[in-house]
Amino acid sequence: MTDATTPVTPVTPLPTADLVDEHGDRLSVCDTQFRQFGGRRSFCGRVRTISCHEDNGLVRELLRTPGEGCVLVVDGGGSLHTALTGDLIAASAVENGWSGLVINGAVRDSAALATMPIGIKALGTNPRKSAKASRGAIDVPVGFGGVTFVPGDVLHADDDGVVLLPRD
Asked: At which positions is substrate bound (predicted)?
């Protein structure tokens, strides 16, 4: 069994509706209605997580490390008060090989994010910067939209939504 930091073979994005048809109840479907912000509308990868609130210090730090095709799931508690990522942090994610970001919170620099070759789903936008104190936790289970995201599970996202396959 792999943990969240063990490299794995890259995953190919598959349509989420097809995955639901194939896997049924074994698949978790996130009920949160995200908006698309990245230039890549379909993405997938092994899950890494961050839990934080209006503080993107850990997001910035983790996305500066090799992503190896992973998807970072950030539970910002649904806050739209500050942005948890923007163009500079997303550019770092692209540079370091992250497949995508799913943010239960806000982003900024949305026009720039739309041009980047990375998947980004978030609740909305806010131009306000967040704190940089690095408060929160990395690679802990986080939950929203009726799904618990566990590091190492495989996430697929597209225009229809976000689904999660538990690791075998």
From this structure: 86-89, 108
Neighbours of 124 (CB within 10 A): 14
128 assigned to a ligand binding site: no
Contact (Cβ atoms closer than 8 angstroms) between residue 118 and residue 92: no
Q: Is position 108 annotated in a ligand binding site?
A: yes
Q: Is 31 annotated as a binding residue?
A: no
- Predicted confidence (pLDDT) per residue in 59-118, tens digit: 999 999 999 999 999 999 999 999 999 999 999 999 999 999 999 999 999 999 999 999
Indicate whether 10 belongs to any domain.
Answer: no
89 is in an annotated binding site: yes
How many domains does the chain fold into? 1
* 161 annotated ligand binder: no
- Whole-prediction pTM: 0.93
Say which amino acid occupies 41. R
